[in-house]
């Protein structure tokens, strides 16, 4: 059956393939009714090609569709073979100068901060690189998909609209030329025909809703087959869909994931194919399973023919898109066809139909037709306009559809608004002709229906669904923003009218916000439920920029401004027509002034923070001043209608509310209010909230008597009583009043004074003060930097958002700040220039309270450092604009003087608590401001002007009867000497000094100069006295400091002496190794030091006493005492790997005895160097384990370490560890017997050894294992007694087993014969890694290791040397025999690797460390030392052969020195001999110089490793020559290692070895014949991959990367492995694989092959480094890319150009080379617990 079906399909294919595109096209050309012909063709073939079964076969379908369906269309269109036709078209085409490249997801896009008209103007990478903006301040982002390159759009760029490529075309094409003239007429006709038919077909079928028929097509299918089609939504999660599918259609989890992935990508996927019932059944299961909590998943049973035609419909649209790419003429025809109105009139064009059906289409279909629109309609200048009109007319419908739709905005046609509205000419046209502004605002209002009785928005109790809608409706504000982005340069009457109409609509919107969310103070009970406040603030936040832009527009035209001002005022009056209603009028009077107002208490009645209408009016009022309209056309303005008390009322209430909240009066209203107040002042909102309230007060006050204003203000602050009643304060403090109330009043007074400071002092907005925009931004920056130096991004964040906040800042920052570059960590900082400190205003209105006190502290400190007095007087201010000029009079008004006087009086009396220092500080500041003001007035005095500002005179006058209070000046003089006001003395002195200066100024201007006033002299002398006093105090302080320092250092010395060991351990990182052992050992300076062999330098090992970090007890390291251990961490490592593709062998069967020279996987041991008693550690570890198990059961939380795997944190430094290494004395000494025999030479020694080995084999071969064991046992008892204490033996086993377990990834088994091999291997590998690090850093071999590494290597080597004592002797002997056989073959050990496949250093370590097992049964009397030496020589010889065989010397190209040294001759002889041995297969080399040079370079790493190894094994100190980098390192090493300088001499001693080494194995031959690869020497160190300097290269690389598993789809989280350079598709279902029975993401899976479980990645989209270790551990790490401001950009949010910082990258590389990645993760996770919760394994 199945086979039949297959042949049938094949048969169809054959039939289909016989179709000829040309013949069909010819038939069509002759047809009368072309549409009928084409439709018939489609009706017949489409179902035969598409959807032939349950799974689509895209390649087959595409191939057939091209052949049978599209082919004929192309023939028809071209009238000839399209293979010729299309290229012809393309050549004839004069392409448009627009780039129009549509962005893929993740593709980099560039915008120029200097030249882009708005931030939405972007370039593709290619255009950007060819543009002038490359050299400008640009910004890069990654595209979210959709949108296109604006290169060539003159409206998008202020400068340089063309890149080099697109500039070429501009001169030729006249803008207006009709592209159709390029095409032959008959082709135009054919194009019309075929486009009309195919476009209509596609639109009809995609918008088709009937189930069993087709639009104008016959149903050809005989049998009815159906698909069960699953659609995507944004409600259900991946997991839900996968789970449901498994149930509904009985598929595997893999298939379900496949379905879900496609549904997510394309928007729909058939999940079942068959008859109707079969499909319907699946549908109902899916619906049932997903309808419980949410609305069910959308599933539809569809006839297979419809699905087939829809698939082809989409294909057609894509085809149209590509065909019009050949010619602008064809593009124009398609546009015409698309926008042609059908028979049904309005909205009947194909384009309209598609747009209006948008929300019903699935994702894939939307994408396809949106792309077509972008490449056709939006690329044709004429039709772009027509399309824009269609779009605007349908705007309301489209937006309503979008509200109902649940797809993201990027997937909606509504999102095209960004492409249309941001084009300035289109936006202007749509405003004037289609009234777009009004439409957008009205549509917005229509969708926001929740209102209260007064018609204001109400978000209380709104549901989740409404919240969802509210989020969607916000996108309309974005549209409004786009429309307003570019401001008109010329105004037509039409534009004015339509803008004002839009302004009206906008005012309606603001009116609904004016007074929304009112609140009433809660007394007694705390509020029960926090009221909803976020929605209202979200709205405000989103509108902030729009409100500012509206004002910007108004500022551009005087007529518009005047009209807008009138409209705004009218609406405000409507809002508050009855602002007095219900509230009683009262009369306030003070100091002989009286004013009428209403009785209103913020603390008792309703108050709202939302006052957008008032604030807009305030903004417009400033514009009247700024544009001077107010002076030019006063008659046109309704200034007389303004009622200042009405204007200030609501903003004042709002500010009083803030003050009261701060005074703690609204505590019972909960956090929602605190949040609102926070946002009211926050940088995101303040520009159109708090700032404008201040402006409104300034506006009001400038129009009224300041005394009146102050009285109203006192009344609103509920402080009127206090200041209007004489002696109120006195009564207040004497009576036993509520302390809280007093405190409250104090805060309110402080707040009120602060408000007055702001009203008078804030004049840095153009229009209020005589400043420009630059001054404003400079002032913001100065005050931010007064707090502390800041990074660029911090500064940007602190500034309000507007289109050029960054460029605005950058244009002035150089003037006020210096940039300091970052170091290896941290970021670049801006520091305030010292000369700018004088502009600092302590009461800057944008400071938060915390910022204010920080700034105060910082500025005072600065002044102290400069030895200045610490007063922070108010800075000199710019003058007000005339409209606001009268504001300064507040400062000298009677009520103000009364307030100042009262507070100073309180301060003088200094009684009780009805008074505070902050109050006084503010009063002093106000006095200072007034003095500055008067001084400036006097200085700028011109002839005719009279100075009306006479503050100095007023404060000199004493109060009148009946008070008879002293004058303010007198009180200040009193306070100057008050002991309780030390802090304010400097300020008071400054005031008095300024007072005198002014007095002088006045006198000089009025009459003859007088002598210095007495006061001045007095003041001056007191100042000197003060200075002396300060100096004396400073001196005392210095002496005291010195004394303390001396005491401390004494204590420190003492402490160090007492805790010497501890100290050495903890500070080890700081200084390099001067390990105790070396220090204490006798200095052997003159003697030649030899590390091994019979000549080994004898060194008395010093007594080593260490302290346990857990119990603080000291103990000596001895063989027979309790074990001391070092915390250690063992890990598998591929850091040195030369072959990352090696397949890991089955760990159970793997024999690790020989390490391959590719070092593909080693075992690394590291340690933090902290020492514990073994038993203390065990107790500690047991406790940790018990605790963690309890905790995990209870809380199910992870920790940064995996207890079950034996992991723990070092108790002292929290370094991740998984085992401990025992500390041992040098083990060789224990087993070395007296050197009583003659020393055999190498040949003799090998002979003896071979006999021994043979004997061992013989014993084994007797096939009597037990007997053999017995003998061994016997011999052991006889000749060797394990000298170690039980405790040490136990630790030897513990660490050995851990190495085995981790190194092989197997279960622990201490009996396994591979345990000792792994121990030797880890020792060898760790030494090799350290040698590499030292070499890479160009450090000498000895003397530069940190203590922790030095201690670690010592213990590790000694441990590895002692480990054989706890393993099976026969096993170790067996290993030795095998190892030796690789160099000295014997008949027993066959199948050994060839010498090309052995890492010689590993071999050396294993041989030397297993040798004692043989030696202990050796009666030949040869010493261990002799054995070591011979083994070392043997291995060295083998390595020399290895190097010579694999040497890739190129003779030419290198300068050869003409020497013929002994070494060169010898090595050449050796090489020739090698050639003979290999049967002349070896390449001939005649230069001994090259060979010797090569050999030396190749063998160096081995010699260096060996030197380290024998140094740690035997404890012979390194000669001073190799502790520094110097000449003749090679010779010094040879001497230390008992090697002849001429290495080839070794072969003279034993030349047969050479033969045996090569002949034994024919692998060497295969290699020389080029049949296999071999590692050559010296192996280069591994580095992380090279990264490009420019980060956008990486983004581009990543955007071209598609997921390897889901057929060309773009990966969402492309992630680069920094070790091998592989790009991965991370954090995505598509690329999950199974690893050890668990699903893991691509990164985790990759770490297992590339890094043995450890990985270093760069998440390209996020610009973030990712460290992974195992499945559960990971952390993020700052990327090595910095912007010009020395900052990283994790998440790529700011988009500044990023460049590689080599030093930081080196740091990451070093972490990797040092095997510290896991440790780094551990520390990061300990520091940040949220990291533990991240699902690392799925990345
Ligand atoms: Zn481009
Ligand atoms: Zn371009
Ligand atoms: Zn530019
Ligand atoms: Zn202890
Ligand atoms: Zn530690
Ligand atoms: Zn890799
Ligand atoms: Zn993938």
From TrEMBL:
InterPro entries: ClpS_core, E3_ELL-like, E3_ligase_UBR-like_C, Ribosomal_bL12_C/ClpS-like, UBR-box_UBR2, UBR1-like, UBR1-like_WH, WH_DNA-bd_sf. Residues 97-168 form the UBR-type domain. Transmembrane segments: none annotated. Residues 1020-1033 have a biased composition (Basic and acidic residues). Keywords: Acetylation, Chromosome, Coiled coil, Isopeptide bond, Metal-binding, Nucleus, Phosphoprotein, Transferase, Ubl conjugation, Ubl conjugation pathway, Zinc, Zinc-finger. Pfam families: ClpS, PRT6_C, WHD_UBR1, zf-UBR. It is found in: Chromosome; Nucleus. Its EC number is 2.3.2.27. One of its GO terms (cellular component) is cytoplasm. PROSITE patterns: ZF_UBR (PS51157). The keyword Zinc applies. SMART domains: ZnF_UBR1. It is an enzyme of class 2 (transferase). The keyword Protein biosynthesis does not apply. GO terms for biological process: protein ubiquitination; ubiquitin-dependent protein catabolic process via the N-end rule pathway. One of its GO terms (molecular function) is ubiquitin protein ligase activity. It catalyses: S-ubiquitinyl-[E2 ubiquitin-conjugating enzyme]-L-cysteine + [acceptor protein]-L-lysine = [E2 ubiquitin-conjugating enzyme]-L-cysteine + N(6)-ubiquitinyl-[acceptor protein]-L-lysine. Its main location: nucleus. Pathway: Protein modification; protein ubiquitination. A zinc finger (UBR-type) spans 97-168. Residues 1003-1033 are annotated as: Disordered. Ubiquitin ligase protein which is a component of the N-end rule pathway. Recognizes and binds to proteins bearing specific N-terminal residues that are destabilizing according to the N-end rule, leading to their ubiquitination and subsequent degradation. Belongs to the E3 ubiquitin-protein ligase UBR1-like family. This is E3 ubiquitin-protein ligase.
């Amino acid at each position: 059956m199945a086979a039949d079906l297959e042949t049938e399909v094949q048969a169809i294919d054959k039939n289909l393939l016989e179709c000829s595109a040309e013949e069909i096209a010819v038939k069509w050309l002759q047809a009368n009714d072309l549409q009928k012909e084409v439709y018939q063709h489609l009706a017949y073939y489409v179902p035969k090609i598409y959807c032939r079964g349950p799974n689509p076969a895209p390649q087959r379908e595409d191939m057939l569709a091209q052949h049978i369906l599209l082919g004929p269309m192309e023939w028809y269109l071209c009238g000839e073979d399209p293979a010729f036709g299309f290229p012809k078209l393309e050549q004839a085409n004069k392409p448009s100068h627009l780039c129009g490249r549509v962005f893929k997801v993740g593709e980099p896009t560039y915008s120029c901060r200097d030249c882009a008209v708005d931030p939405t103007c972007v370039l593709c990478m290619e255009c950007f690189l060819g543009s002038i903006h490359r050299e400008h301040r640009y910004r890069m982002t990654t595209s979210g998909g959709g949108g296109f390159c604006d290169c060539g759009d003159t409206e998008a760029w202020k400068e340089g609209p063309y890149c080099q490529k697109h500039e070429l075309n501009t001169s030729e094409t006249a803008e207006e030329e009709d592209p159709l003239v390029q095409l032959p007429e008959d082709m135009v006709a054919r194009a019309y025909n075929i486009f009309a038919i195919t476009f209509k077909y596609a639109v009809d079928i995609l918008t088709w809703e009937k189930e069993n028929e087709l639009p104008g097509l016959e149903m050809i299918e005989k049998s009815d087959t159906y698909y069960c089609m699953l659609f995507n939504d944004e409600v259900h999660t991946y997991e839900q869909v996968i789970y449901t599918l498994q149930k509904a259609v009985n598929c595997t989890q893999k298939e379900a994931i496949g379905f879900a992935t496609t549904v997510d990508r394309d928007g729909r996927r058939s999940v079942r194919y068959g008859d109707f019932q079969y499909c319907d059944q699946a549908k109902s299961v899916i619906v049932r399973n997903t309808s419980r909590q949410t609305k069910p998943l959308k599933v539809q049973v569809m006839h297979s023919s419809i699905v087939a035609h829809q698939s082809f419909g989409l294909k057609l649209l894509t085809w149209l898109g590509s065909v019009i790419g050949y010619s602008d003429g064809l593009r124009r025809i398609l546009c015409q066809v698309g926008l042609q109105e059908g028979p049904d009139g309005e909205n009947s064009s194909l384009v309209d139909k598609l747009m209006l059906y948008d929300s019903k289409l699935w994702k894939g279909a939307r994408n396809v037709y949106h792309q077509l629109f972008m490449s056709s309609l939006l690329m044709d200048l004429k039709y772009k306009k027509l399309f824009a009109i269609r779009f605007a007319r349908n705007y309301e419908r489209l937006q309503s559809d979008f509200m109902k739709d649940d797809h993201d905005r990027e997937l909606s046609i509504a999102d095209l608004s960004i492409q249309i509205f941001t084009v300035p000419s289109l936006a202007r046209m749509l405003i004037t002709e289609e009234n777009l502004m009004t439409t957008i605002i009205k549509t917005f209002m229509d969708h926001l229906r929740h209102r209260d009785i007064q018609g204001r928005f109400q978000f209380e109790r709104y549901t989740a669904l409404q919240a969802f809608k509210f989020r969607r409706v916000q996108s309309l504000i974005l549209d409004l923003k786009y429309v307003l982005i570019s401001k008109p340069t010329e105004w037509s009457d039409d534009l004015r009218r339509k803008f004002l109409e839009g302004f009206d609509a906008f005012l309606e919107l603001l009116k609904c916000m004016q007074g929304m969310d009112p609140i009433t103070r809660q007394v007694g009970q705390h509020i029960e439920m926090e009221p909803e406040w976020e929605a209202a603030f979200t709205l405000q936040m989103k509108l902030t920029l729009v409100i500012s832009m509206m004002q910007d527009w108004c500022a551009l035209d005087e007529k518009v401004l005047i009209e807008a001002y009138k409209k705004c005022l009218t609406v405000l009056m409507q809002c508050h027509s009855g602002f007095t209603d219900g509230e009683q009028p009262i009369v306030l009077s003070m100091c002989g002034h009286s004013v009428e107002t209403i009785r209103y208490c913020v603390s008792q009645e309703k108050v709202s923070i939302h006052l957008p209408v008032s604030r807009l009016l305030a903004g417009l009022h400033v514009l009247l001043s700024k544009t001077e309209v107010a002076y030019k056309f006063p008659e046109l303005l309704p200034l007389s209608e303004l009622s200042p008390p009405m204007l200030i009322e609501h903003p004042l209430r709002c500010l009083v509310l803030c003050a009261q909240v701060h005074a703690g009066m609204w505590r019972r209203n909960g956090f929602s209010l605190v949040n609102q107040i926070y946002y009211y002042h926050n940088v995101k909102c303040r520009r159109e909230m708090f700032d404008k309230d201040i402006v409104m007060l300034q506006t009001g006050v400038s129009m009224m008597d300041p005394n009146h204003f102050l009285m109203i203000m006192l009344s609103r602050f509920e402080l009127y009583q206090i200041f209007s009643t004489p002696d109120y304060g006195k009564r207040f403090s004497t009576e036993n009043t509520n302390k809280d109330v007093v405190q409250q009043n104090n805060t309110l007074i402080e707040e009120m004074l602060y408000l007055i400071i702001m009203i008078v002092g804030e004049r840095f907005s153009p229009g209020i003060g005589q400043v420009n925009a630059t001054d404003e931004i400079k002032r913001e920056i100065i005050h931010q930097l007064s707090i502390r130096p800041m990074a660029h991004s911090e500064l940007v964040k602190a500034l309000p958002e507007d289109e050029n906040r960054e460029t605005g800042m950058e244009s002035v920052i150089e003037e006020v700040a210096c940039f300091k570059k970052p170091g290896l960590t941290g970021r670049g900082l801006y520091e305030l220039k010292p000369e700018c400190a004088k502009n600092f205003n302590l009461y800057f209105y944008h400071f938060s309270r915390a910022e204010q006190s920080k700034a105060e502290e910082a500025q005072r400190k600065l002044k102290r450092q400069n030895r200045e007095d610490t007063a922070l007087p108010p800075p000199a201010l710019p003058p007000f604009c005339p409209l606001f000029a009268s504001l300064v009079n507040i400062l000298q008004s009677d009520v103000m003087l009364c307030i100042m006087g009262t507070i100073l009086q309180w301060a003088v009396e200094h009684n009780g608590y009805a008074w505070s220092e902050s109050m006084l500080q503010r009063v002093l500041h106000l006095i200072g401001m007034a003095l500055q003001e008067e001084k400036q007035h006097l200085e700028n005095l011109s002839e005719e002007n009279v100075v009306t500002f006479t503050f100095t005179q007023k404060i000199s006058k004493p109060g009148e009867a009946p008070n008879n209070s002293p004058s303010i000046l007198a009180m200040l003089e009193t306070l100057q000497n008050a002991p309780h006001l030390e802090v304010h003395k400097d300020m008071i002195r400054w005031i008095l000094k300024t007072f005198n200066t002014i007095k002088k100024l006045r006198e000089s201007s009025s009459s003859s100069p007088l002598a210095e006033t007495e006061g001045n002299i007095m003041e001056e002398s007191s100042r000197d006295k003060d200075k002396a006093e300060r100096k004396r105090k400073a001196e005392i302080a210095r002496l005291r400091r010195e004394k303390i320092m001396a005491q401390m250092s004494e204590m420190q010395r003492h402490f160090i002496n007492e805790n010497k060991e501890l100290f050495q351990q903890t500070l080890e990182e700081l200084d390099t190794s001067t390990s105790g052992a070396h220090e204490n050992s006798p200095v052997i300076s003159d003697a030649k030091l030899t590390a091994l062999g019979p000549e080994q330098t004898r060194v008395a090992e010093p007594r080593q006493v260490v302290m346990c970090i857990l119990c603080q007890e000291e103990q000596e390291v001895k063989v027979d005492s309790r074990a001391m251990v070092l915390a250690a961490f063992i890990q598998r490592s591929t850091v040195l790997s030369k072959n990352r593709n090696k397949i890991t062998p089955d760990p159970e069967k793997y024999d690790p005895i020989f390490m391959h020279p590719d070092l593909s996987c080693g075992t690394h041991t590291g340690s933090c160097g902290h020492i514990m008693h073994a038993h203390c550690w065990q107790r500690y570890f047991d406790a940790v384990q018990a605790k963690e198990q309890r905790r995990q059961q209870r809380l199910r939380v992870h920790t940064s370490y995996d207890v079950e795997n034996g992991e723990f944190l070092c108790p002292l430094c929290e370094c991740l560890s998984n085992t401990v290494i025992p500390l041992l004395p040098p083990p060789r000494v224990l087993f070395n017997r007296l050197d009583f025999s003659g020393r055999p030479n190498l040949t003799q020694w090998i002979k003896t050894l071979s006999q021994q080995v043979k004997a061992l084999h013989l014993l084994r071969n007797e096939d009597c294992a037990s007997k053999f064991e017995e003998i061994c046992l016997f011999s052991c008892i006889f000749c060797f007694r394990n000298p170690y204490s039980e405790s040490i033996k136990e630790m030897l086993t513990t660490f050995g087993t851990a190495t085995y377990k981790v190194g092989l990834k197997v279960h622990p088994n201490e009996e396994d014969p591979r345990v000792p091999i792994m121990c030797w291997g880890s020792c060898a590998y760790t030494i090799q890694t350290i040698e590499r690090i030292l070499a890479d850093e160009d450090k000498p071999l000895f003397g530069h290791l940190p203590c922790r590494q030095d201690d670690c290597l010592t213990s590790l080597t000694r441990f590895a040397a002692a480990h054989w004592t706890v393993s099976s002797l026969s096993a170790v002997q067996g290993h030795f025999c095998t190892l030796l056989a690789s160099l000295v073959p014997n008949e027993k050990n066959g199948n050994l690797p060839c010498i090309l496949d052995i890492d010689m250093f590993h071999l050396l370590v294993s041989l030397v460390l297993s040798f004692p097992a043989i030696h202990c049964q050796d009666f030949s009397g040869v010493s261990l030392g002799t054995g070591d030496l011979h083994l070392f020589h043997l291995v060295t010889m083998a390595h020399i052969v290895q190097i010579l065989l694999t040497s890739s010397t190129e003779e030419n190209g290198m300068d050869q020195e003409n020497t013929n040294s002994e070494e060169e001759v010898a090595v050449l002889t050796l090489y020739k001999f090698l050639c003979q041995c290999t049967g002349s297969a070896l390449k001939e080399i005649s230069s001994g110089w090259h060979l010797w040079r090569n050999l030396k370079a190749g063998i160096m790493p081995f010699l260096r490793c060996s030197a380290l190894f024998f140094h740690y094994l035997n404890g012979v100190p390194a000669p001073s020559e190799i502790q520094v980098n110097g000449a003749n390192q090679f010779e010094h090493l040879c001497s230390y290692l008992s090697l002849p300088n001429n290495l080839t001499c070794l072969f003279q001693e034993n030349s047969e070895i050479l033969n045996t080494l090569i002949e034994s194995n024919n692998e060497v031959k295969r290699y020389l014949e080029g049949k296999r690869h071999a590692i050559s020497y010296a192996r280069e160190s591994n580095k992380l991959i090279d990264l490009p300097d420019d980060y956008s290269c990486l983004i581009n690389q990543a955007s071209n990367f598609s997921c390897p598993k889901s057929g060309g789809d773009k990966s969402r989280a492309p992630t680069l492995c920094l070790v091998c350079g592989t790009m991965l598709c991370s954090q995505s279902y598509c690329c999950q694989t199974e690893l050890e029975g668990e699903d893991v993401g691509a990164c985790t899976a990759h770490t297992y092959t590339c890094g043995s479980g450890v990985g270093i990645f760069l998440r390209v989209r996020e610009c973030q480094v990712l460290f992974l270790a195992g499945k559960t551990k990971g952390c993020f790490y700052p990327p090595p890319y910095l912007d010009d401001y020395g900052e990283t950009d994790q998440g790529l949010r700011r988009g500044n150009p990023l460049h590689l910082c080599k030093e930081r990258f080196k740091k990451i590389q070093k972490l990797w080379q040092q095997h510290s990645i896991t440790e780094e993760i551990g520390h990061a996770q300990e520091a940040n617990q949220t990291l533990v919760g991240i699902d690392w394994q799925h990345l």
